[in-house]
Design brief:
8 strands, six-stranded mixed beta sheet, 10 helices, 241 residues, alpha/beta
Length: 241
């Protein structure tokens, strides 16, 4: 756990960034400090370290705060799902606003997070300027939502009878050869199978390098692999190279 920023006074805002990829974590910290000058930022790289941070970084519970604390929560953490942490915050910390920051834009992750208590859902494949704009909506009382996420929510409201799907692969063992990858994950896997590095994949797909790192992390977790050599083999098995 690390802390940056200096603040004073009862209404000083604290931001807790929970993200296990160090470059992405640093990027989110920078985005918060640029968006909310004077914010105190605490970081964690797992559920366990986030729970330790929560015990001390926010201070006493204050449901009447006019300036809410923020928690930017990645969903794919090494020791579990960020949704667990969102649920804990929603129950115990009404003065903290949980906001998902993720690469997952499917209905399963989205609605699971909202049901757990997330008050915002931002995709990390956008640039920092756009994400900062969405975060600034907090000051107007609006939920920070990436546009594609807002459209998914509206679509769900238009068809309330439709079942909410679970996250892709949620019921499958990570080692299951039929595990489902999203179209973007398939695209990234195919490029990894050709031997491209993260930076090269990012340039080809017009995404940031930290976003690609997030996709690689998700692919490794789903396929139960831990190296580029294994990723190349999996890409070959799936006919992607």
């Amino acid at each position: 756990m690390t802390t940056t920023g200096i603040g004073s006074g009862t209404e000083t805002r604290t931001g807790l960034v929970i993200e296990d990829l160090a470059p992405t974590r640093a990027w989110l910290v920078e985005m918060l400090t640029l968006t909310f000058p004077g914010i105190r930022v605490v970081t964690a790289d797992s559920l366990a370290s986030a729970r330790t941070a929560m015990a001390g970084c926010f201070g006493p519970v204050d449901a009447a705060r006019s300036v809410p604390h923020l928690a930017l929560v990645d969903l794919g953490l090494p020791d579990g799902s960020g949704i667990e942490l969102i649920r804990e915050l929603a129950c115990a910390r009404p003065d903290v606003m949980p906001i998902v920051t993720t690469i997952y834009d499917d209905d399963g992750h989205l609605f699971d997070a909202i049901t757990a208590g997330a008050q915002g859902y931002l995709l990390k494949d956008q640039d920092a300027g756009l994400l900062a704009q969405y975060l600034r909506r907090i000051e107007r009382g609006d939920p920070p939502l990436s546009p594609s996420i807002a459209r998914r929510i509206l679509a769900r409201l238009r068809s309330p009878a439709a079942p909410v799907p679970t996250a892709p692969g949620a019921t499958l063992s990570p080692a299951d050869p039929d595990v489902t990858l999203t179209p973007r994950e398939i695209e990234v896997l195919s490029l990894l199978g050709r031997g491209l590095r993260n930076a090269e994949v990012a340039r080809l797909l017009s995404l940031s390098e930290h976003t690609i790192a997030g996709y690689v992390k998700a692919i490794y977790a789903k396929l139960s692999i831990c190296s580029r050599a294994e990723a190349a083999l999996e890409a070959a098995k799936r006919g992607l190279v």
